[in-house]
Amino acid sequence: MFPNLNVNHPRAAYQCGRLMAVLEMIQTEAQGEVGATIAQTHYATASARPIVALPRLETLTQHHLPKIKPPRLRNEYQRLLTEINGRIKDTIPRTFDLEDQCLFHLGYYHQRGFQPYAEPPQRHKTMNGEPVRSKSEVIVANLLHLLGFKYEYEAELRINDHILLHPDFTIREKDNRFGKPVYIEHLGMMDNFTYRADWEDRQKLLMNAGILPLADGGGENGVLVTTEEKNGTINCEELVKTLKEIKG
Is 28 exposed, middle or buried (0-12, 13-18, 19+ CB in 10 A)? Predict the structure, then answer.
């Protein structure tokens, strides 16, 4: 299921619900697990009398934002705050009637489905001793090593001279049977809607650049291979079969 987030919704109540969700996300990112989130303590007031709760919470958020690491994630939350406040327009309403309270609830839960995500640090080690971001990437890297592949981790890939991507694993043309680069992307957070949307955007960029899926025989400029975690599991048997197909 995909949430029906409508960033262009014309009603202030919906946008205030989105704002409440983002303020809660920021608190959690900055402080970790706390006794009670701002939604648990201020949600009822914000959904009925937003002018009482939201301005005070936005002021408090200015103390939380500097604590968010890394900077990319902090900037994403700042962008969201700016965008939502711009859509509320002139002022935060004083009260909401029943219809507006329903829109507040929808805005809150729709926005919750699109929580920004941060790339985890490279804190896991492969058989080669290189740092990677997840245990699943350790598995992929180790299988590549055991099958005799020479690969690069998060190598730069320029598209149209101005778009820079970093595919998880790159196998150069001389090291595979296709005679063109093979790019392996491990999709480890597809249950996160923002992550999924980001991957769909990157996939379009790759395909428009002539880098097509292995199932289609690849493209003029490369072959795209994806591995995916499902419910926290990874299928090594299937992955080995795919890698052997690449090796030829």
Answer: middle
